[in-house]
Design brief:
Order of helices and strands: HHEHHHEHHH
Strand order of the largest sheet: 1-2
Number of strands: 2
Helix content: 55-70%
Distance between the termini: 24 Å
Length: about 200
């Protein structure tokens, strides 16, 4: 029998799972419908493409692109969602906005950017920076242990994704996505004495 506590804990992970499922549905639709959804991505210095701030992370250049983003997005997204669905969506929104605007400004004009890696880098940075949140020491130790594992598993690929990105990879989205995650972690930290759920 499922207890209410277990049900509540499992429901926290519904948000990242649902987000990834939506990306897969969109990719299936893109594969069978005429045209390409990637045209709705974020095109640098094009004001008409600003809806790509929201749509760009949901779109992918192909199946390998989506498959490559799926596992880290699920793992890191679930680590963010441990703090609740509201926190997950807040971090997602801040990361997409900061990552998208930075990419839009820094990329060469007309460059089209799509893919969830902006969120992956944002979630990664968020998990690392949460160590410094003003929470009880037991929470910070737990975050530090989680962050250590995340750094060991994903740190190398994250660094390469910014410093050693290939010509078709947007290091700008990776860098500004990470900056968005840092901003979300620092601005969303609860005040001392505030109650957390």
């Amino acid at each position: 029998m499922t207890t209410p506590e277990r049900s509540h804990t499992a429901s926290r992970f519904a948000s990242p799972v649902g987000l990834v499922a939506l990306m897969w549905v969109i990719q299936f639709a893109d594969a069978i419908l005429p045209g390409s959804f990637t045209a709705f991505g974020l095109r640098s210095w094009d004001l008409g493409s600003l809806p790509g701030l929201v749509l760009g992370p949901l779109l992918h250049a192909g199946w390998p692109h989506l498959i490559g983003n799926t596992l880290p997005l699920l793992v890191l997204g679930c680590l963010v969602a441990v703090e609740g669905a509201g926190r997950f969506w807040l971090v997602t929104a801040v990361t997409a906005l900061v990552g998208g605007i930075g990419t839009w400004l820094v990329n060469a004009p007309g460059t089209l950017t799509v893919g969830a890696s902006v969120l992956v880098f944002g979630y990664f940075a968020y998990v690392i920076v949460r160590i410094f949140s003003p929470r009880p020491i037991s929470h910070r130790i737990a975050y530090a242990l989680i962050a250590l594992v995340v750094i060991v598993v994903y740190g190398g690929s994250m660094l390469v994704g910014i410093i050693g990105a290939g010509p078709s990879v947007s290091w700008q989205a990776h860098l500004f996505g990470a900056i968005g995650g840092v901003i979300a972690a620092l601005s969303g930290a609860p005040r001392r004495g505030a109650r957390s759920t």
